[in-house]
Amino acid sequence: MKSNQRTEGGLAGMVAATPESRDRYVDLLRVFSILVVVVGHWLMAVIYLDGDGLTGASALDTVPGLWLLTWVLQVMPLFFLVGGFSNLVAWRSIRKKELSYADFLRSRITRLMRPTLVFIGIWTGAAVIIRMVFPTSFDELKMATELLAKPLWFLAVYVMVVALAPLMLAVHERFGITALGFMLGAAGCVDALRIGFDIPGVGYLNFATVWLFAHQLGFFYADGTLASLSRRFYVGLAAASLGALALLTGSGIYSPSMVGMNTEAASNNSPPTVCLIFLTLWLTSAAMLVRPAAARWVQRRKVWTVVIAANSMIMTVFLWHLTAALVAVVILFPLGFPQPPGGSALWWAWRPVWLVVLTVILAGFVMTFSRFERAPARRESAGADPSRGIVIGGVAALVAGLGGLAQFGFSLGPISSASELPSQPLFNALLVVVGYHALASRSRSIGG
């Protein structure tokens, strides 16, 4: 009871302390983007559990035309847009306080990493135990943990983007919209090398180019440029962006889906393509068109209270939502929960029930683990900041560790040579811990 009172009091205090100058729509967009990703993953998953074990697929591969939903549900560009807004505000606050680049990274990254470390620690340990107890289940465990670790790709990219934010802000202040044009052209050139000249490795450069484009747009939101543009402009930009998407995907070169889908055309998601830049422009246009009405709505006290509460646990929701789906499959499917063919009428009829069930299970994980996300930054005794080399090395370790887990999952496989270490969860988890420690030392409570 006392815990609930403290929580309610804390929320009420944060609501009352919200300055009039705060753009609450940014906070609403952050929550909206993550929740849409969660629901999209749950909606598209086709999972079966039978005598042959655990199998899975995507409804995108079984339902004709369902890929069109990804043009609306692939809203991760909005999260990076919001990130650009927030990182500009935070960096300028850091500079006014005459604090360092290390302080900026601590203020932007450590809160994201606290719940992430818990998630990684629990699943790495669980996978090791399962591997020891059920040594013949390696293939199923590998598939399951690769699925559960997929959300970590986003954190790997976002950590990189945050680390580059001060540099990209300087680019924004120097070159303005020209920088966006350059990134659009660079993404197209990378695609040409990857697809046209069959150089697959170069495509991974677009993890930086495409997502930095969305982040760069956030600077234009923060400096007031986006809000100053007319509704007619955004209607035109939305139409042009959707038209470009239609032309690019209709050419057969690019997949029509904005997320992973089995097709002979080039994937738009891993690695990203220029299609995601046009998706970013379309989604940004849509977000700015609804902004006036949504901004008025989020001014309501009850709505704003919910937004604050959701933002305090949104990373926990994102990290554990696929675990909730796995728990539902392992527990409910053996008890007779329906497993109709993906895309069938019965499958669609059960989707609302499926979403409700997963929401209830996820709520349990959020109640258990969100405390780590809400925990205040640890105060440490003052001392010299780590060198810039250590800070950059910490970022590199985080990106490598998170990326390795996202690619290979948590399943511990055989190691026959040192070259196989990057595929091992213990090695990648250690990289994340080392990177976090490099950034979190001398943690301070910094606003922004």
- Elements, N to C (H/E): HHEEHHHHHHHHHHHHHHH
Give the structural class.
mainly alpha
Euclidean distance between termini CA atoms: 31 Å
Shape: globular
- The helix fraction, in percent, is 55-70%
What would you say about this model in short?
By secondary structure, the protein is mainly alpha-helical. It has helices at residues 2-17, 24-44, 70-73, 76-96, 101-133, 138-149, 152-175, 177-196, 206-222, 225-228, 231-250, 274-297, 301-311, 314-332, 345-374, 388-408, 425-440, and strands at 45-50, 53-58.
Describe the structure.
- The protein has 448 residues and is mainly α.
- It has one domain.
- It has 17 helices and two strands.
- The protein has helices at 2-17, 24-44, 70-73, 76-96, 101-133, 138-149, 152-175, 177-196, 206-222, 225-228, 231-250, 274-297, 301-311, 314-332, 345-374, 388-408, 425-440, and strands at 45-50, 53-58.
- The chain has a two-stranded antiparallel sheet.
- Strand 1 and strand 2 form a beta hairpin.
- Helix 1 packs across helix 13 (301-311), helix 2 (24-44) runs antiparallel to helix 4 and helix 16 (388-408) runs antiparallel to helix 17.
- The radius of gyration is 22 Å and the shape is globular.
- The two termini are 31 Å apart.
